[in-house]
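Appendix B, example 12.
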Amino acid sequence: MVHRLSRVQGFHVHATDGAIGHVDDFLMDEQLSRLCFLVVDTSNWLGGKWVAVSPASVTDVDWIEQIVHVAMTRDEIRRSPSMEEAAVPSHEMTPGFVII
């Protein structure tokens, strides 16, 4: 079955040893035209860190409970590359709006 990636935004992320955050965004490789990372917001567990997690680690998506299960431990997710380490251009990490 095919689903829109935008539907997965906000889904909770569960590591093999418990909940760790939620799906915030997706990173694509412009030259290869393929999905490279899920951006996981771990702010509730790590104090505001966004990390890049390989989509190959996804083992299941529970569409009813809105949970993405990954074959990684919480510690492995904590040690995943940050947005800066994933070489995301700085202009893509700033909000698309300005509050005055």
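Residues 5-92 form a domain with the SH3 type barrels. fold (CATH 2.30.30.240). The chain has a mean pLDDT of 84.
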